[in-house]
């Protein structure tokens, strides 16, 4: 779990249709949630942007990297006016990069929010950073929960992932307005299967190889307090992407839209980038 963009704190929401739609057609913006296995976590962003635009929120249910790419492809083909502006958060940013590489004609702009890192060397310290921000009691609990997830220790694995996500959400945030993320469900099986493939892909340079095939403009928005280090996103991508900009938000953790000091600037940047694309 050291190198992923998840887990996130969980505030369960009711499951609904897939994809969820916000605002009025045409739908030319799509938000891609993190996890893997954390559907619904970008609903607040979709609602905010839908004041001005039609926004699609696909909910990923496939249990492989290729499956998630093609599931996203099917949902976008069926429900959006292509090409779309694709906004991915955490794992969703990494998935968005793979999607834009495989389906370049379908993405007009890619926006990476709090992305996971793209080289293994930058992933090594993420879990220690998170644990180091917790109290002694929280750290011991988190270490126990990580062990339970890795060994199938008997507890309900989805509940274990929820609790671990809530602990790490505290470590990921600088000064949050809310302690938890809005999600439909927390799916440990999807998380472990998809993320194990993603880690192998990252170790083999697969994300950077994909980045070289991305044709559209790419913008990364990243908090300076995010345990996923800024340089782990910026440095690998800057040499691979044709049109790339990197924006750092101060006093901001992994999820900008819940941050007291960064939320308004985040949405201002997001609106500007989306309006310049659609």
| Residue share in β-strands | 15-25%
> What is the H/E string?
EEEHEHEHEHHHEHHEHEH
Largest sheet, strands/sense/barrel: 7 strands, mixed
Rg over CA atoms, rounded to whole Å, is 17 Å
Mean pLDDT: 89
- Uncertain regions spanning at least 5 consecutive residues: 5-15
Percent range for helical residues?
Answer: 40-55%
Q: Looking at the structure, what is the overall shape?
A: globular
Number of strands: 9
User: Biggest sheet, strands in spatial order?
Assistant: 2-4-3-5-6-8-9
N- and C-termini, Cα separation? 36 Å
Count of alpha/pi helices: 10
Overall SS class: alpha/beta
Brief synopsis:
With 278 residues, the protein is of the alpha/beta class.
Task: Walk me through this protein's architecture.
Helix 2 (65-79) packs across helix 3 (91-102) and helix 5 (136-151) runs antiparallel to helix 6 (157-172). Mean pLDDT is 89; it is low at 5-15. The chain has helices at 43-49, 65-79, 91-102, 126-132, 136-151, 157-172, 188-203, 206-211, 230-238, 263-275, and strands at residues 10-12, 20-22, 27-32, 54-57, 84-89, 107-113, 181-183, 218-223, 244-249. The strands form two sheets. A seven-stranded mixed β-sheet has the order 2-4-3-5-6-8-9, sandwiched between helices. The protein is an alpha/beta fold.
């Amino acid at each position: 779990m050291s190198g992923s963009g998840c887990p996130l704190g969980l505030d369960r929401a009711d499951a609904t249709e897939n994809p969820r739609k916000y605002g009025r057609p045409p739908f030319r913006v799509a938000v891609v949630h993190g996890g893997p296995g954390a559907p619904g976590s970008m609903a607040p962003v979709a609602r905010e942007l839908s004041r001005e635009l039609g926004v699609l929120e696909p909910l990923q249910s496939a249990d492989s990297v290729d499956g998630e790419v093609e599931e996203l492809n099917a949902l976008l083909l069926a429900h959006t006016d292509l090409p779309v502006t694709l906004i991915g958060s955490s794992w969703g940013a990494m998935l968005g990069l793979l999607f834009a590489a495989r389906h370049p004609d379908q993405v007009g702009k890619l926006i990476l929010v709090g992305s996971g890192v793209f080289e293994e060397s930058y992933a090594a310290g993420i879990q220690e950073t998170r644990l180091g921000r917790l109290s002694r009691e929280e750290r011991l609990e988190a270490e126990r929960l990580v062990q339970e997830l890795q060994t199938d220790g008997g507890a309900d694995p989805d509940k274990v992932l929820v609790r671990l996500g809530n602990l790490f959400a505290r470590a990921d945030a600088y000064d949050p307005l809310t302690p938890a993320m809005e999600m439909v469900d927390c799916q440990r099986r999807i998380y472990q299967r998809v993320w194990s493939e993603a880690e192998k892909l990252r170790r083999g340079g697969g994300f950077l190889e994909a980045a070289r095939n991305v044709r559209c403009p790419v913008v990364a928005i990243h908090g300076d307090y995010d345990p996923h280090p800024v340089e782990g996103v910026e440095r690998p991508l800057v040499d691979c992407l044709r049109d790339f900009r990197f924006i750092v938000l101060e006093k901001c953790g992994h999820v900008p839209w819940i941050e007291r000091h960064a939320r308004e600037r985040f949405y201002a940047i997001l609106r500007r980038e989306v309006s310049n694309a659609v």
